[in-house]
Specification:
- It contains 6 helices and 1 strand, in the order αααααβα.
- Helix content is 69%, strand content 2%.
- It has one domain (10-151).
- α2 packs across α6 (133-151).
- The radius of gyration is 18 Å and the shape is globular.
- It is mostly helical and 165 residues long.
Length: 165
């Protein structure tokens, strides 16, 4: 008689996120992501010229795209932050945030590999940080948070309130 196969890591993670502790953890991860994206957006919205210079310093984006990215990315970050904060379209926002975080990490890795010494530009000039393996790790950690929110159940901001039976 053979044993039943044990569920995979993905199935175990989904089962965890369905419980009260997991749902609380997801809200916490969502709020962290929302805060990061909102905090990152506002300095860029206030000073798009400096943000465009920060983008250009990476030498990763074609010149023709620097201006449009400098204008559109902060708006996208605000939309992502609001969606994650409110829980409305949170899963979609988590997918987009994860893709952005991977792109940001790739830009940082190529800058490190090419020996480009620069400020990451992540939070404008409110919180300057040199591009380093630490900033890459920070983005990859946030990417993992995005995956968790993506794989977790849909829920409003405060999911622990149960609907009457």
């Amino acid at each position: 008689m053979s044993e039943a196969p044990t569920p995979g890591a993905l199935a175990r993670a989904r089962a965890y996120f369905e419980g009260d502790q997991g749902r609380t953890a997801l809200v916490f991860l969502r709020l962290i992501l929302a805060g990061v994206f909102l905090f990152a957006a506002f300095p860029k919205l206030l000073d798009p010229v400096t943000f465009a210079r920060d983008i250009d310093n990476y030498r990763f984006v074609p010149d023709a795209l620097i201006g449009p990215i400098a204008l559109m990315l902060p708006v996208a970050e605000v939309i992502i932050g609001i969606a994650l904060l409110s829980g409305v379209f949170a899963r979609g926002a988590a997918v987009v945030s994860g893709l952005l975080l991977l792109g940001f990490a790739a830009g940082m890795v190529q800058a490190i590999a090419r020996g480009i010494d620069l400020d990451c530009g992540c939070f404008g000039h409110f919180a300057e940080a040199q591009v380093s393996w630490w900033t890459v790790g920070r983005n990859l950690t946030l990417f993992v948070f995005s995956i968790c929110v993506t794989l977790g159940p849909d829920m409003p901001l405060w999911p622990l309130r149960r609907a009457p039976s």
